[in-house]
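Recall that a protein's primary structure is simply its ordered list of amino acids. Everything else, from secondary elements to tertiary packing, is in principle encoded there. The following example makes that idea concrete.
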Amino acid sequence: MPHLRIEYSAGLESHADMAELCQVAYQAMLKTGIFPKAGVRVRAYKADYAIVGDGLIENNFAALALSVGAGRSTEQLKSAGDEIFAAVSETLAQLLATTHFALSLEIRVINPDLSWKDTPIHARLSGQN
């Protein structure tokens, strides 16, 4: 259940390859070793309308929200978050070197009693890393 949602400002597309960013995030998630491949999802959504900071048109953002199932320690999730954030930061380094970009990552642990799934992909990929 490691699902990463990337919400980003529309202007970011002219400065970053979003497909590449998704691939970098995906590979970083797998590299952590704590997320099963069958459960990994990475999705990016453009915010057609957004006001960032002081409202300047050149301001952009990427807000990453990683939802995970229960059962991993805070230390494991912190390490995974560090790994993912570092990989994404490296990919967006040129933007982070400006004063017009904001990058964030938040990890949310989902209560298993409040989560329903039917995922045949898991059966197909079981045993693969």
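Strands lie at 3-9, 41-47, 60-69, 101-110. The chain has a mean pLDDT of 94.
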